Amino acid sequence: MPAAALRPKPNRKPSPTQSTAERPVLLDLPYAPVEKRPLPAGRPREWYVSHNRRLKAMRLAIALLDSGVYLPGQARNETIRSTAETIGVHPPSDTTCHMVRALMRYSR
User: Fold this and answer.
1) Distance of alpha carbon 87 from its chain centroid, rounded?
2) How many Å from the N-terminal Cα to the C-terminal Cα in the chain?
3) Residue 57, helix vs strand vs coil
4) Average per-residue pLDDT for the chain
């Protein structure tokens, strides 16, 4: 493929997923919560606890990425807990904070 074909064309509008910001945008709070559905019945209690912990960790990881924290080393427990307060989630445990960093690490 010629090199000219790989260069973006001038005066081209950015794609809908392409960021046009010069610096990270501050956290944009969700406009409407997702409709909750009941969890399946009949599972052991540990399954529900770990499931909800994973959901919380994903929400926090997404909020951190949206606020400009891209590396797990930047996401200290204090940072994660302040983000949880910002988005209206109960403060996460040390285990959940560890899971947030793991999600950020393996998403690369």
Assistant:
1) 11
2) 27
3) helix
4) 81
